[in-house]
């Protein structure tokens, strides 16, 4: 005799509720399947990118247990000539209780190894442009549904525009091929989080000046101004109109003992933005330090003329200048 | 007994923390070399208040404790926290529990198991004998 589950037939209201649940679930699944469509690339992206690209020199590290974070970091750091091993990275980025790695620490660990983590814009155009520029890109995906997330880091290393596929070093699988559609659906669930790890002196192909500035300042906090010097030079090469970039370059040059270079950079900053009081202030303080009293007074007076946080320090320096005469 | 102890201890702790963080927070314009650093200039430009600065300074201590609680080797904790930016440290302190932790594709099997278990119970599928 087959044991027949009697509850199906005795509790009709329960059965109705169950039927409704089944229908609702089927509906949700249909909606979710319908939402995922192949992401469209901008016309300019299609024109400028080659049909296929693969960064073959990016090494592959298969993940062990839950350690896709350390493995992904090792791949992009190795590709950027940092010979660090997964075993070294695990205690630096892995959270044993969470059995995973969180985004801020992924970025922080890149800094510890002397590379600058630049977040890139969350769209497929930016991702493909970075890959084409030779920058393997760490992406965060949720491979499952939002209700049962499976967060995962992988390294995007190539694409094929004709096939509409992305190529990733992912998990245990080197050069895994995912369709743009499936990849974008899983990437969208992390708000399309992605970053490149680049040596000071190289900038991402896609980020704007402000975003690059933030990334370099955060790197400088950890590695010091001398280590960031090349990054500031690169920022000014790319964005010569960016006054704060000139200012930062001046500080980095000063830290390496290049005082003439620092003066040139501060002058570059005020040439781009004559209202950047803090650049006038540093220019004045540096001229004072070098004994150029007249130039120091001129710059400090301009700094003191702008209302704001730098007015008081500028006035104090001016007072010092007078008593020192 | 313990409550009484806490009552005396917590004001002392609060005072110690506040006093400890004040000199750092209150002196944005006087750096060692005399020049204004880029970080200070940016903080001022974005009109970041003292309150936020204090929050970010305290955040680093909090993150250290959280990392130890998450099973991180205590000898590693300090270097890990030092590599965070101020904003990242604040984010970790405020919402480490909610931050997604990139884990693995190995877990996929478990999630599929859960989904199939649900659909099994709902009567849509017939994978596991024990649900019948």
Describe the structure.
- The complex is a heterodimer of chains A (325) and B (132).
- Chain A is α+β, with helices and mostly antiparallel strands and 325 residues long.
- Helices cover 54% and strands 13% of the residues of chain A.
- Chain A contains 15 helices and 8 strands.
- In chain A, strand 4 (137-142) and strand 5 (151-160) form a beta hairpin.
- The longest helix of chain A is centred in the N-terminal third of the chain and has 24 residues, at 12-35.
- Chain B has 2 domains: 8-23 and 40-100, no CATH class; 102-132, no CATH class.
- Helices cover 66% and strands 2% of the residues of chain B.
- Chain B contains 6 helices and 1 strand.
- The radius of gyration of chain B is 24 Å and the shape is extended.
- The interface between A and B is large, with 73 and 52 residues.
- Strand 2 of chain A pairs antiparallel with strand 1 of chain B, so a sheet runs across the interface.
Order of helices and strands of chain B: HHHHHEH
CATH superfamily of the largest domain in chain A: Cysteine proteinases
How many separate domains of chain B?
2
Mean pLDDT of chain B: 72
Rg of chain B computed from alpha carbons, rounded to a whole number of angstroms: 24 Å
Structural class of chain B: mainly alpha
Unreliable residue runs of chain B? 21-32
Per the principal axes of the C-alpha atoms, what is the gross shape of chain B?
Answer: extended
End-to-end CA span of chain A: 110 Å
TPR repeats (chain A): 243-276
Domain Peptidase C39-like (chain A): 63-168
Keywords (chain A): TPR repeat
Organism (chain A): Halomonas lysinitropha
List keywords for this structure.
heterodimer; A: 325 residues; alpha+beta; Cathepsin B, Chain A; Serine Threonine Protein Phosphatase 5, Tetratricopeptide repeat; 2 domains; seven-stranded antiparallel sheet; 54% helix; B: 132 residues; mainly alpha; extended
């Amino acid at each position: 005799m087959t044991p027949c589950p009697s509850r199906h037939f005795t509790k009709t209201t329960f059965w109705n509720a169950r039927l409704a649940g089944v229908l609702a679930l089927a509906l949700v699944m249909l909606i979710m399947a319908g939402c995922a469509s192949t992401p469209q690339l901008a016309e300019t992206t299609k024109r400028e990118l080659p049909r296929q690209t693969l960064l073959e020199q990016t090494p592959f590290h298969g993940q062990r247990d839950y350690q896709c974070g350390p493995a992904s970091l090792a791949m992009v750091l190795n590709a950027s000539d940092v010979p660090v091993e997964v075993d070294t990275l695990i205690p630096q980025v892995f959270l044993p209780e969470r059995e995973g790695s969180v985004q801020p620490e992924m970025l922080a660990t890149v800094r510890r190894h002397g590379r600058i983590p630049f977040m890139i814009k969350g769209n497929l155009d930016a991702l493909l442009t970075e890959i084409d520029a030779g920058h393997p890109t760490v992406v965060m995906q949720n491979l499952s549904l939002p209700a049962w997330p499976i967060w995962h880091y992988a390294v995007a290393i190539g694409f094929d525009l004709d096939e509409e596929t992305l190529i990733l070093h992912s998990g245990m699988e080197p050069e895994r091929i995912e369709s743009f559609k499936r990849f974008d659906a899983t990437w969208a669930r992390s708000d399309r989080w992605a970053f490149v790890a680049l040596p000071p002196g190289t900038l991402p192909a896609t980020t704007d000046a402000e975003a690059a500035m933030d990334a370099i300042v955060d790197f400088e906090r950890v590695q010091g101004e001398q280590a960031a010097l090349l990054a500031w030079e690169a920022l000014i090469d790319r964005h010569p109109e960016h006054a704060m970039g000139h200012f930062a370059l001046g500080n980095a040059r000063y830290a390496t003992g290049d005082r003439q270079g620092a003066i040139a950079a501060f002058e570059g900053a005020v040439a781009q933005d004559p209202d950047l009081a803090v650049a006038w202030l540093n220019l004045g303080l540096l001229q004072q330090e070098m004994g150029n009293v007249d130039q120091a007074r001129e710059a400090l007076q301009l700094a003191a003329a702008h209302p704001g946080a730098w007015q008081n320090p500028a006035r104090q320096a001016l007072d010092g200048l007078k008593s020192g005469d | 007994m313990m409550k009484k102890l806490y009552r005396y201890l917590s004001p002392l702790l609060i005072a110690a923390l506040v006093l400890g963080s004040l000199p750092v927070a209150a002196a944005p314009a006087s750096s060692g070399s005399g020049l204004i650093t880029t970080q200070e200039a940016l903080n001022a430009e974005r009109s970041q208040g003292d309150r936020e600065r204090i929050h970010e300074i305290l955040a680093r201590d909090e993150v250290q404790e959280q990392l130890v609680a998450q099973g991180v080797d205590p000898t590693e904790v300090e270097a890990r926290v030092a590599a965070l930016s101020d904003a990242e440290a604040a984010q970790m302190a405020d919402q480490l529990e909610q931050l997604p932790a990139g884990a693995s594709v190995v877990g996929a099997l478990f999630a599929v198991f859960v989904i199939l278990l649900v659909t099994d119970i709902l009567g849509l599928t017939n994978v596991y004998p024990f649900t019948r």
